[in-house]
Write a structure and sequence with these properties.
The chain is of the alpha/beta class. The chain contains ten helices and six strands; from the N terminus they run αβααβααβαβαααββα. A six-stranded parallel β-sheet has the order 3-4-2-1-5-6. This is Alkyl transferase.
Length: 281
């Protein structure tokens, strides 16, 4: 039985108030600089509910917007999401085409005036071999990045089509090229030189450094979340996931991921920071 409009409005209002209070309380503690999400489970979610795979991906984009809003309200400056692996091109042509259409439409919405990225001053950057996409998708990506290029308050890294090994290899080639161009001295190259040339690192460098408490560590992941109870990195940000990265493998399918999943993750990270400050870690 459907709820009467008035009751539905009251419930929505109370949930909104509770969300605001919870996020305010969390914001009083330490806040991570960089969170990464492996958005897993769209297809399994669709199969369990008897829906089309495209519907699962569609609800997955809704979950991305919901989760991104939580992060932006907490002033988490960098959010990186694993949207499409290079290996995903091996999936059926129908699924890949449907996902391309969804990505163009839903991500474009985020970039429009009045939407989240505009509201919070966050730029969008696509990290990976975008030349593998169809030309219309490449053009849409370029347009989205240009629409948000002037934003300096944060960055949404959409890793697509992406593989961490490919990102590292590209950064290494860029470092070698810098030596040939005379920008770096061969015997003075460090691992930091390569790290700074990672696609994600270059995107983060465009954010106002004054907004980070630890700007020199903004490229590293504070928290890595993978949904759908899958416990592996799957070639996602393997260098950025340092010894201090907190890993969370949650059972929730990505389309259902939300505030109730995020709160324990954030509180767990804050607890670790407080213990470290007290000398227990």
């Amino acid at each position: 039985m459907a709820r009467p409009p008035l009751i539905k409005s009251i419930v929505h209002f109370l949930f909104s108030v509770a969300t605001t209070v919870l996020l305010f309380l969390i914001s009083l503690g330490p806040i991570p600089q960089h969170i990464g999400f492996v958005m897993d489970g769209n297809r399994r979610y669709a199969r369990v509910l008897g829906k089309k795979v495209s519907e699962g991906h569609g609800e997955g984009f809704t979950a991305l917007k919901r989760t991104l809003e939580i992060c932006l309200r907490l002033r988490i400056r960098v959010v990186s999401v694993y949207a499409f692996a290079i290996d995903n091109f091996n999936r059926s042509e129908n699924e890949v085409s449907a996902l391309m259409r969804l990505a163009k439409d839903r991500l474009a919405e985020l970039c429009q005036h009045g939407e989240l990225l505009e509201e919070y001053g966050v730029k969008i950057r696509f990290i990976g071999q975008t030349s593998l996409f169809p030309m219309d998708v490449q053009e849409a990506i370029k347009e989205m990045e240009e629409m948000t290029s002037h934003h300096k308050n944060g960055v949404l890294n959409v890793c697509s089509p992406y593989a961490s090994r490919d990102e590292i290899a590209s950064a290494t080639k860029g470092t070698v090229q810098a030596v040939y161009d005379g920008e770096l001295v061969p015997h003075g190259i460090t691992s930091q030189d390569v790290f700074d040339r990672l696609g994600t690192s270059k995107a983060i460098s465009q954010v106002n450094p004054k907004l980070f408490k630890r700007p020199e560590e903004a490229g590293k992941l504070d928290i890595l979340v993978r949904t759908s109870d899958v416990k592996r990195l799957s070639d996602f940000m393997m260098w950025q996931a340092s010894e201090d990265t907190q890993l969370h493998f949650v059972k929730t399918y990505w389309p259902e991921f939300g505030l109730s999943d995020m709160i324990p993750i954030l509180l767990g990270w804050q607890q670790k920071q407080w213990m470290r400050q007290l000398g227990f870690v």
